[in-house]
Design brief:
The chain is of the alpha/beta class. It has one domain: Pyruvate-ferredoxin Oxidoreductase, domain 3 (3-Layer(aba) Sandwich). About 40% of the residues lie in helices and about 20% in strands. The chain has eight helices and six strands. A six-stranded mixed beta sheet has the order 2-3-1-4-5-6, with helices on both faces. β2 and β3 form a beta hairpin. The longest helix has 22 residues.
């Protein structure tokens, strides 16, 4: 497949598997013959701080950081992180967002307000018309373990047909990176995500 440059930004908080998801996609892209560049930025990732992982691949890829406004997909494992990184999006960027809010303790301690899902949706609708919220934690629990949420989100990405990598290549990459004892759970999580992505694609005709 001839793809000059594909840009994906994966964001979330420490412990959600953001970096692992990009490792899975990077391995898959390499195995399909693309040039691959990645980069990461994170705060206190081990303590629930913000994590952003950049993936660029294709036949022509210059550097690891995505130019602002040129992201194909923003994959957000925590909803407010999609807002934090909205300036990487353009009008045609697809947001695939786990409808999960992880509110930092200091918000409660200081009596501050945290954005609701509806507020986040309203804000992002002014950025792009391609905003999709996913009950990824629920689907991961259905598969057997909430920690498989990142694999659910990869399945949604595949099901929506918004990454130019074959489904089986991404599946093989997932199997390469996960512990063997979680294979069945992650297989289910990937399938549930794909089903959700296909459903969204049909509803939106995208």
């Amino acid at each position: 497949m001839e793809i000059q440059t594909y840009n994906l930004l994966n964001v979330g908080v420490g412990g959600q598997g953001v970096i692992r998801a990009i490792q899975i996609l990077s391995w898959a892209a390499l195995h399909e013959g693309f040039k691959v560049r990645t980069a990461e930025t994170h705060g206190m990732a081990q303590r629930g701080g913000s994590v952003a992982s950049y993936l660029r691949f294709g036949t022509e890829v210059e550097g690891p950081l995505i130019p602002r406004g040129e992201t194909n997909v923003i994959l957000a494992f925590e909803a407010s992180e999609a807002v934090r990184n909205f300036n990487y999006a353009g009008a045609q960027t697809y947001f695939i967002i786990n409808e999960k809010l992880i509110i930092p303790p200091m918000i409660h301690q200081q009596g501050l307000e945290y954005p609701t899902i509806n507020q986040i949706r309203k804000f992002l609708n002014d950025v792009s018309k391609h905003i999709h919220f996913i009950p990824a934690d629920d689907l991961a629990l259905k598969a057997g373990n909430q920690r498989a949420m990142n694999v659910v989100m990869l399945g949604v990405l595949v099901g929506m047909n918004h990454i130019p990598i074959k489904r089986e290549t991404i599946f093989n990459s997932i199997m390469n990176f996960i512990p063997k004892k979680t294979k069945e759970i992650n297989m289910k999580a990937f399938e549930f995500g794909i089903e959700k992505g296909i459903s969204i694609r049909g509803e939106k005709n995208e």
